Structures are given as structure tokens and as C-alpha cells.
Amino acid sequence: MGCQCSRNYPENSLFSESQLARLRDHFDHFYLYNATDRDRFHTVFYVKNHRTFENYLDKFFKKYMKWPEDFVGFVRAIEILVYGQTSVGRESVDTTTPKGSIERLADVIQLKTDTKHNSATLTKLLLAIFKGDPTLIEKIRPQSDNIAEIQEYFHKQFPVIENVFPDFLKQRLLGAKKYYVPHIPALNTLLSKALPFIYLSSSVFTHLLEFHCLYLSRDSILSFKGIEDGLEGYPSSLMIIIKLQDETVIGGFVERKYKKRKNTYEINSFLFSFANGYTVLRQAEKGNIVFLNLKSSPRGLGFGGGTSSEAKLWISEDIDSDSRITDHNNAGYTPGLLLKENSDENIEIIEIELWGCGDELARQHQIEYKNRKMKMMHEGEKFDAFEFKSFLNEYPL
């Protein structure tokens, strides 16, 4: 990356020559043709319901432009907003720690460090830039108006939103690709209600193409057997969503990436809860900390801890009485609560959804697995589940 430049472009820029050519074209329309082409400026930087945002950007650019034709100053301003630093006019890139992307956005709209309502102002603008549902602000709740703490909140909870501002500039000015927004099933399901938040909390969903319904308790019977049957033979990423008696919704996502060289899966996971706004507890330990125990008592599905008693979330074979949350124990996840208050207690589950998050091939693998199992059992042959799972390059949770 970077341009030594030959066509009267700034030297040592962090942008390539082709990118500088794009910026030059925009600059000429913004500041040279007919004094200022405001229609072009509006088209490039338009954000619905935030018309003043364009004016703030204009003021920020001009702060770095020493005169109206100062293209070098314009490039410096864009580099600072996109990368947090600039090398234009310098022998090397500034080595000081750059401000975070949300801190840079706060500079543009001239927010002071601890001004009241900073969190609401920034959240509304970020969602508008992202073209996200404005009602999501009800669950996106930075607990501080300090801009650095707001930056940290989005970094931990909503990384997709964290970088939406520099991504917006790269898309509008440089023609960068946009995030792919997955189809959210228009169904009366827990997934439909939870996915807009989950999507913003993990970049894995920016390239996720489809969801496979593996188990819906509302369409059958609430039982661990339903979870077990849904998991069986499915070789890709999974999401489980749970509604409790008090209407709280919690869940977990398990990302499974197949590593061809090692012929195994790399597994990562996170837990989420709508008990206090929307909270994500990310996996803090390397390796697989999600376990499915089907061989010995107690049988069940656990997230973290390694045992049913130490798991952050334990879904027991006896769903009605032995499922529990252990909030005092992080169990391999970042600190946080799944319930409204810090407590270790059995939970009363009233609804469960299990969704596969792989491609169509993953769904086809599961169908082949179950068809072969039924055929072998019908013919009286011994069905070796682990042998067939290996054939599918699948490994137990």
C-alpha cells in the first residue's frame, strides 16, 4: 500500500495511485468546478436524516486545506479519517497510536470528550451510516458519554459498527465493496428478532449466505432430543437461541472453520443476551470450549467450563429442571452477565431454536448422514456414527 507518485499526486500517500486519481476527481468536483459542486458533495456523503453531517465533513476537510486548491491537504484529511494517521508530506507514517474510528467521527462532528448525550448522538449516526434499523438503538447502550469508552464499547460489542465510518468513506470515495447484508428470514422466530443485533456483533455474518432451520421447539416438543437430532450430522457453524420464562432471550454461536491441512475444525464461539440491552460474551480462551456430552450423565450441551457445573450456560438433557446459568464464573468467556443480575441459578426454558449457519453443502451433508444412518439401521447393519462423521470431515462439538 502507498504511493510514491508520478502525476503531481502527494508523495508517500497511504493511498495507491489509482485511489488518488479517484480522490482527485472528487476533489475537483467538490472545490474547483463552479466554485463548489454541492450536488456532487451531497450525493457522495448523504446520510439519511443527518444532513448536517455533510457540512461537518466539509469543515473537517477545509481544516487541513491551506487554500481552496490544496489537494494535498484534502488527501491528508481523508487519510486521517480512514486510517487514523497520515504520511503525506512526511518521510514515514506517524508512529503515534492513532485514534479509533469512532473517536475520529466524534472529531468530525465536533463532540467534546464527555459531553452529555454523546453515546446517543454517535449511536444514531453510526446506525444511519450503516443503514441499520434505527430501533436497534433501544438495545445498543454504551454506559458512558466518554468518547474513548464509547469506542471501547463498540469494539467489544459491535465490531461491525465500530469501523462503519472509515468503511463508508472508502465506499463513497474509493469504490470499496460494501458489506454483504444476509437475508434475515421474515418469520415469526427468535432468529428474526435477534439477528439484526447478532449481525452487528460479529463480522462472520457479513459473508454468511443462509440459515438452515435444524430445530424449532414451537413446531414440535421442547426436548433435548430435538437439539440432539438437529445437531447430528451438521458439519458447519451453529446458533442456538433460547427464550426463558421471563421472556429474556439468550443464546450462543459456534463458528466452525475446517482446516484442510490438519483435517480438523477450528472452533470459536460467543454467547449473547438481551437481558440488559444486548450483550456479547466472547470466547477468551483458545480452542474449543463448547461441549456436547451424550455418553455419560449428566448429558447436555455446555458453553465454557468443561463440566455441567462450571459451564457458563448448560442446557441439560432434562431441560425443565437442570438447565442453568453460572454468571459468577466467566468459564472461558469475557466478563459479563447473561441474566439481569449476577446469579447462579437454574433457568426455565420455554422455547429453543437451533439454526445451521453453513452453505447448502453443509445441509446436504446432514441429509446424507441421516439417510445413510436410516438405511443401515433398516438393513440391520451397525451404524458407526463416528466413522461417518469422519467421512464428512465433521468432529463433535
From TrEMBL:
InterPro entries: TLDc_dom (IPR006571)
Domain of life: Eukaryota
Domain TLDc span(s) in chain numbering: 183-358
A Pfam family: TLD
Protein name as catalogued: TLDc domain-containing protein
Source species of the chain: Blepharisma stoltei
